[in-house]
Design goal:
Organism (chain A): Rubellicoccus peritrichatus
Largest interface: A-B, 60 and 60 residues
Pfam family, one (chain A): Radical_SAM
Number of strands of chain A: 10
Strand order of the largest sheet of chain A: 3-4-5-6-7-8
Order of helices and strands of chain B: EHEHHHHHHEEHEEEHHH
GO molecular function, one term (chain A): catalytic activity
Low-confidence stretches of chain B: 42-55
Order of helices and strands of chain A: HEEEHEHEHEHHEHEHHHEHHHHEHH
Largest sheet of chain B: 5 strands, mixed
Strand content of chain A: 5-15%
Oligomer: heterodimer
Largest sheet of chain A: 6 strands, parallel
Protein name (chain A): DNA modification/repair radical SAM protein
Helix content of chain B: 40-55%
Cofactor (chain A): [4Fe-4S] cluster
Distance between the termini of chain A: 38 Å
Shape of chain B: globular
Low-confidence stretches of chain A: 401-419
Chain lengths: ~425, ~260
């Protein structure tokens, strides 16, 4: 029997492959009325950062890393010889409360390997959330990983206590899932996302029509998912199309991309090394362009260019391929056009739109807005500035190559600094 | 040249500014001097309080300015007071749209100072670490934290901690000011020395275990970590003592991968 410390070590180590640690955008609550502990609802807080650059916002652990399944990419697969442990519900509750009281965390992100059967596992996970909310009146954030095969009733119950639910889509292509995670069922995963989406929509509609009376809560921070990148041969186009379909069909708040991390004793079916972390970064940038900048997936990746360019960010790549639409006049262009200018973020654009009602923008104004001149200058014009035809011509010459470098090409390391 | 005492609070600044404005004194002719540097004669020259001018003020300033002033008054740099008066002067002397355009040098600087304060506030929410104090009584839990904010934000941040930890008794100790909550009311006291704060908590070993294991050595990104958690905060974060060890582990893994 392990000590708590040993179990925590094993079960947090097992959880580190899950990228999400978000704790934003849920309903507001605090403990001012003298009961329980905690507050949530505003912008999530990152209480610490580890040297991998990731934030620590939640206590992210597995209830157990024993698992019936044998997904090849997973450290916790049945055939792995990783040390195993299981925390009791009360132990997780106590850890959460004690960490929370010292202001280490915003709450709990609980996931689990599948033991006995999916419903049993889901019930154990829900028990922890229920104890936190009911026995301790815990008002911090709770994210529960949902077991896709769990029953409809259990999913409803999980949403009652959790702020966020998530089911991992795991891989971009169904065929990869069949190959690498034979016990997982791609259609089943989507069916569960659909169920969560339905419950979420019901909750939202009820809240809208019924401001004053009590509506039972259902995952007010919605659902998210995670896709492993680089464990199969999927292109960025496969990844982004799958993500876009998930956003559209199930109203997901976030799709997390997780560059495949090599695990001990890997199967021969897995790639021998990790994809560059830069690929993961480019995917997040592309995801942002689709969600907040009005781009379509097929503008960012195409049949000819199925992978994102590692040298340039996706917006710059797009601009270089569509150089005819530039330069853009910052004093007159509509918002949608400004959103396509490399180097301009949503915040800067909002400020530009506000300022130009009163004042025509000049070159010297841009640095006051903390806009990188180097980045934007080839693409814009202002009252006192126009890019020379020379600089536009030069851009033509640095058009992104149509072929992305091979994923495991050794020539990549100097560019990415990874691998 | 008019010499006035550097105010300590926003309210004091408002009184001074109101007087200066009433006398139509251009900001270039105002010398803001710390009270300690003023001779008695000078100090007497400082404008007297005039409560009536609050209502009788001819000048109207946008609410946005008052919000800015309130924000920036938490900044540690005392140049904020003269800067605020310059902005106020411009707003009331022919540039009423100054804040809307936001490109004036003083406004840009003010916004940068406010940004720094907001970041500091956010980091305070994140990096305060409570330690349990054993006061011998069985049924009460007491916690205290030591924190060194960059700006004067303790009072401003107290409500956040009250809402979150309303049912706990706690103190946040800092060099500038201390906030104490006893489950009923907030008491602010003067700043203290770090020695006054508890230096350990038994639970920290579990927290360090968690921090060590949630780190993925296969994806070392020190710069990303440091941009969000700058080194200046490390000395008061119990988990930060592990950073060198974990970074080393990540680098060793990197070398192994290069060999493969």
């Amino acid at each position: 029997m392990h000590s708590i410390e040993k179990k925590l070590a094993i079960l947090s180590d097992a959880a580190k492959y899950d990228a999400s640690c978000a704790s934003s955008g849920t309903r507001k609550q605090d403990s001012l009325n003298g009961k329980g502990i905690g507050s949530r609802g505003g912008i999530g807080i990152c209480h610490s950062y580890t040297p991998d650059g990731r934030c620590v916002s939640l206590l992210k652990i597995l209830m157990t890393n024993y698992c019936m399944y044998d997904c090849l990419y997973c450290i916790n697969r049945k055939s792995s010889n990783t040390p195993r442990a299981r925390l009791k519900p009360n132990e997780i509750v106590e850890l959460t409360i004690n960490f929370y009281k010292r202001n280490y965390i915003e709450g709990l992100f609980l996931s689990s390997g599948i033991i006995r059967n999916p419903d049993y596992t889901m019930e154990c996970v829900i028990e922890v959330a229920q104890k936190l909310r009911e026995e301790h009146d815990f008002r911090g954030y709770i994210h529960l990983k949902t077991i896709p095969e769990a029953s409809r009733e259990l999913i409803a119950k999980a949403g009652q206590w959790a702020d966020r639910l998530s089911i991992n889509i795991e891989l971009p292509k169904k065929s990869s899932l069949t190959k690498l995670a034979p016990e997982k069922d791609g259609l089943g995963i989507k069916a569960s996302m659909q169920r969560i989406h339905e419950k979420e929509s019901e909750y939202k509609a009820a809240k809208k029509s019924n401001h004053h009376s009590k509506v039972p809560h259902f995952a007010p921070a919605g659902q998210s998912t995670q896709m492993i990148v680089g464990a199969d041969d999927s292109t960025d186009s496969n990844v982004l199309s799958t993500a876009s379909q998930l956003y559209r069909s199930y109203g997901l708040r976030r799709v997390y991309y997780s560059a495949f991390s090599p695990i001990p004793d890997p199967s021969q079916k897995l790639p021998p090394s990790a994809p560059p972390l830069l690929r993961e970064h480019r995917l997040y940038q592309a995801d942002w362009l689709v969600r907040f900048y009005g781009f379509n997936v097929d503008e960012i990746v195409s049949k000819q260019n199925p992978n994102l360019n590692l040298k340039h960010d996706p917006k710059t790549s797009w601009a270089l391929l569509n150089i005819d639409t530039f330069p853009v006049d910052l004093n007159t262009a509509p918002r949608e056009t400004l959103l396509r200018v490399p180097g301009l973020g949503v915040r800067s654009i909002n400020r530009i739109l506000k300022i130009r009602k009163w004042h025509k923008l000049c070159l010297k104004d841009l640095s006051k807005l903390r806009i990188s001149l180097k980045k934007v200058m080839p693409f814009i014009c202002l009252l006192d500035y126009k890019p020379s035809t020379y600089s536009l011509d030069r851009l033509q010459n640095i058009r992104p190559e149509t072929e992305q470098l091979q994923l495991f090409d050794p020539g990549l390391s100097p560019i990415t600094g990874e691998l | 040249m008019k010499t006035v005492t550097l105010p300590e609070t926003l309210e004091a600044w408002r009184q001074t500014a109101r007087q200066l404005l009433k006398q139509e004194i251009d900001p270039v002719n105002v010398n803001w001097a710390p009270a300690s540097e003023l001779s008695l004669d000078f100090a007497q020259e400082a404008p007297e309080l005039d409560h009536q001018s609050a209502n009788g003020n001819r000048h109207k300033v946008p609410a946005e300015f008052l919000a800015m002033a309130k924000d920036v008054s938490c900044h540690r740099d005392n140049r904020k007071w003269s800067m605020l008066y310059r902005i106020l002067w411009k707003l009331t002397h022919g540039k009423p749209k100054l804040l809307k355009v936001g490109l004036d040098t003083d406004v840009v600087q003010c916004n940068q100072m406010i940004k720094a304060i907001h970041r500091d506030c956010h980091k305070m929410k994140a990096f305060v670490r409570f330690r349990e104090i054993d006061d011998g009584k069985e049924d009460t839990e007491n916690y205290a934290a030591w924190f060194e904010p960059e700006h004067l934000i303790v009072k401003r941040m107290a409500p956040f901690f009250i809402k979150r930890f309303a049912t706990m008794s706690w103190s946040i100790l800092t060099p500038d000011a201390c906030a104490h909550w006893d489950k009923r009311e907030l008491v602010m006291t003067q700043g203290v020395d770090k020695k006054m704060a508890p230096d350990s908590d038994d639970l920290e070993s579990l927290w360090l275990t968690y921090y060590r294991n949630i780190f993925n050595p296969a994806r070392l990104k020190e710069k990303a970590m440091q941009s969000e958690m700058p080194k200046k905060y490390w000395k008061n974060l119990p988990e930060a003592q592990l950073i060198p060890e974990l970074t080393e582990k990540g680098k060793r893994m990197d070398i192994r991968r290069n060999w493969n």
